């Protein structure tokens, strides 16, 4: 009997595909670029044979407005032409139509749910006691609550909103999840030889980065967490209080040997950036890196809005959660007064950093105010106004301390790479937060005890919150359209306006 979570996910995808086909049959927003480029490759390959496939691809012009590599468009067109419809090349345009491409995107999203379930199972095996491992996982399998946790993560509204649309985010996320599943930090402990499995993880990370270049940083984040996990496992228990950096340095040779496929991937990324003269491929004038310091604090607040799969952990958003944060673990031997002073001092320093970031590090990209169909348009026009930005200081601080408490020993690897991946991005779009959000949520599950996840209502509560949020967003998109003039950066799109992240 299929799991109810899988049935619910399939039903949601089917309903969304039917609604978008009926109410928005033409490509919408960024689909205008993605669909057109895929169809261009499909037309070129439809009249070509495998022997001259490369010539057909090279002769197809690439839209200069697309800033990402052609990997997803080539993958779809090649699979359709030479695998699915090899004997019937004239039918290629049918499977490259807008509905067919959206169905393919939904299938990719469904595969992502299966990968989330697999990663969650590995995480639970890593954190289970021996008795739980023997009784629960080997004999019974994952409980219904664990399936609900996987579903809650999959229903993350900013990700699930685009499951029904032909966006590159879905394929990049699937490859990233495959990378995470095979990486040491999330891998099942008994799975194969470490170095061989890391080859697969590195390959999946490279594929994710070939779809969206920003995933180079998220691949590095997964590797950094694996370094921390390896150092924790290799260090003798006698010296558990030594600094993490000392642990990593003491085992640098072994860690490098195990993770060296990722080193090769890093060299490949460096070569790409040097050869390309930057990260973006097209539209470079609007995608130049800029120090947008507020992106990190936006992400901290973002995690408070979407707290699954453990939305019932209210204790982590209290002051008590701050004192348990990993950054203060070194103060455990001090008296209460000194510890309180350090906590107050840390909060004052943090408040100063956030205030300086708001004052000097806020960027409102031209795309944000040029398109009134995005939530960010209303957010910056009505909420994050210059006079109101400082009012959200407590929210950013709260989000940071919750992030620190959730990540535990992975802070040393996660926080710098989060900043590296988010701060250079001048354009605020919530979907840019989806990859680090997924990684941080799985790391949160790793740092918690099994008992903290055993409350039966947590899975239902988290899934209910996620479902209500995505339902509201989809209802706004489908049933509240509005008239609008064509935008300056998308003059070819004269369709009705529909609200989207």
The gross shape turns out to be globular
> How would you classify the helix and strand content by structural class?
mainly alpha
Mean pLDDT: 83
What is the CA-atom radius of gyration, in angstroms? 23 Å
- Low-confidence stretches are 314-327
Domain count: 3
Distance between the termini: 36 Å
Q: Give the helix level as a range of percent.
A: 55-70%
Question: Which band does the percent of strand residues land in?
Answer: under 5%
Count of β-strands = 0
Instruction: State the assembly state of the protein chains.
Output: single chain
- Individual helix count: 23
> Topology as H/E string?
HHHHHHHHHHHHHHHHHHHHHHH
User: How would a crystallographer describe the biggest sheet?
Assistant: none
Jot down its keywords.
23 helices; mainly alpha; 501 residues
Notes on the structure:
This protein is mainly alpha-helical and 501 residues long. It contains 23 helices and no strands. The protein has three domains: 19-166 and 463-501, no CATH class; 177-288, no CATH class; 289-449, no CATH class. It is found in: Endoplasmic reticulum membrane.
